[in-house]
Amino acid sequence: MCDAEGRVDPKPIRLVAAVSRNMGIGQKGDLPWNLPNEFKYFIEKITSVVEPGKKNLIIWGRKTLEPFAETLLPLPNCINALLSRTLSSAPEYVHYVCPSMMDAIKMASTPPLSENLETIWVIGGVEPYAEAMKHSWCDQIHITDIMEDFDCDTFFPEFDRDVFKLAKEFPGIPTGIQEENGIKYAFQVYQRDVLFT
């Protein structure tokens, strides 16, 4: 993952998802719950940057992007990359189309794009999540633990909780149980030690 001069600029890879007790994340291409405050938290998480002028790369699977493209994009402080093996041109507000997760990560870690990026956020779907969490630069999985089962047809992939360990506290993450529209949930961060080399 280097440019012509051999430079590589590793970026932290982070996943974010709302996950029901039965590991569900979607139903018929949409979210199975209506939690506006949780969704606001999600947007704030992926659009926040520490260093002014930097941006985050948001990696979308095609099925994840479709229900949100017209209502959610563009997002501030974000560059959007869509994973697709069949699209030849980028839809509106999508900056890059990449055939694979590895191609997106390589692009993000190579100048000139890497010079302006802070974090890579993977926001779905199942395959992008599974591929990203295996990458050596993946250091955090941000989960909103939806504390009940939902009828879902799409599920968050299993991950090793001995490798990604639940943080008891995490800066900037609300603590305790939240409740919205009669649904209880809690924000969690699983993290592992990563050497960015």
From TrEMBL:
UniProt-listed InterPro entries: DHFR (IPR012259), DHFR-like_dom_sf (IPR024072), DHFR_dom (IPR001796)
Biological process annotations from GO: dihydrofolate metabolic process; folic acid metabolic process; one-carbon metabolic process; tetrahydrofolate biosynthetic process
Reaction(s) this enzyme catalyzes, per UniProt: (6S)-5,6,7,8-tetrahydrofolate + NADP(+) = 7,8-dihydrofolate + NADPH + H(+)
Keyword entries, A-Z: NADP, One-carbon metabolism, Oxidoreductase
Gene Ontology CC entries for this record: mitochondrion
Superkingdom to which the source organism belongs: Eukaryota
Pathway: Cofactor biosynthesis; tetrahydrofolate biosynthesis; 5,6,7,8-tetrahydrofolate from 7,8-dihydrofolate: step 1/1
EC number of this enzyme: 1.5.1.3
Family: Belongs to the dihydrofolate reductase family.
Protein name: dihydrofolate reductase
Provenance organism: Microcaecilia unicolor
